[in-house]
Specification:
This protein is of the alpha/beta class. The protein has 10 helices and 13 strands. The strands form 3 sheets. Strands 7, 8, 9, 10, 11 and 12 form a 6-stranded mixed beta sheet that branches. Strands 4-1-5-13-6 form a 5-stranded mixed beta sheet.
């Protein structure tokens, strides 16, 4: 009798497991996004990718790009500011559907997310005050450096023989790194080239320059979805459409990123 009861229990457990697996297999990111009517996009704020204009409207290359894709999908783009260091956790926890904010593709991140095709090229650059007199990586070995925590800039510092000798202090965002530099809390910072060219030499950043004597690795931007997400293929098809009809080229021109866009197209 006990054996029979045990067999029944085992069979029930196996059936439940099968049903759960079937249910999970039937789920998809797109099904949930379509049902919710919105794509939740993890971002940080920085010019020219996602930032606020004087009227308080969120604008930028990635902002307009995401809105164009979401229009094709028939859903709303919901932009959610995240802690960049926690981006992988936010994605895995389903707090966001994707990361779309000048996200650099690298092998380490490929373990935690699936990427769409690349759409812009980028590189990490060192920015300092023109009056500071820094010229190359060796001259920065005794400096105080900052970069956004969890960013490609932080990785670049650790990977460079000279930069890794410097005193390092992480910033919450790339914009915070710029403020640390201006206020004197950092001697130099490592940020995305896309942000550097939009900021250096203007307004509060008039005295900031890119150190041309420091060469760091070239990069590419793509959109990061959960591993195994069916959204990658779906969004890639829409990107192809936006490239063909000139939408992406027009957005790139608007935000001074034509060169970065064309380089990505030629790779």
């Amino acid at each position: 009798m006990k054996k029979r009861v045990l067999a029944i229990i085992c069979a029930a457990v196996m059936l439940l497991g099968t049903l759960c697996m079937a249910g999970c297999g039937a789920e998809s990111d797109w099904a949930a996004i379509e049902e919710n009517g919105q794509l939740v996009i993890g971002i940080t704020i920085y010019d020219p990718m996602n930032y606020y204009d004087d009227a308080g409207n969120l604008i930028g290359f990635d902002t307009e790009f995401a809105n164009a894709v979401c229009e094709k999908l028939g859903v709303e783009a919901k932009f959610q500011i995240i802690d960049w260091k926690m981006k992988e956790t936010e994605l895995k926890s389903y707090n966001i559907d994707c990361i779309w904010n000048g996200l650099t593709v690298n092998e380490e991140r490929k373990l935690d997310m699936d990427f769409t095709q690349s759409y812009l090229t980028n590189k990490q650059v060192v920015v300092a005050k023109a009056s500071a007199g820094y010229t190359d990586a060796a001259s920065l070995s005794g400096a105080i450096l900052s970069a956004e925590g969890g960013s490609a800039g932080e990785t670049a510092i650790a990977a460079d023989t000279n930069l890794s000798k410097a005193t390092y202090s992480a910033s919450a965002t790339q914009t915070d790194a710029l403020l640390a530099l201006v206020s004197g809390n950092a001697d130099a910072i490592i940020i995305d080239y896309t942000l550097a060219i939009a900021s250096c030499g203007t307004g509060a950043y008039a005295d900031l320059v890119i150190l041309e004597g420091v060469e760091l690795a070239d990069e590419e931007y793509a959109i990061g979805f959960r591993v195994g997400s069916d959204m990658v293929e779906k969004v890639d098809k829409i990107i192809d459409q936006l490239e063909k009809d000139g939408t992406l080229a027009a957005i790139a021109e608007k935000y001074g990123l034509t060169e970065r866009y064309e380089e990505a197209q030629n790779k």
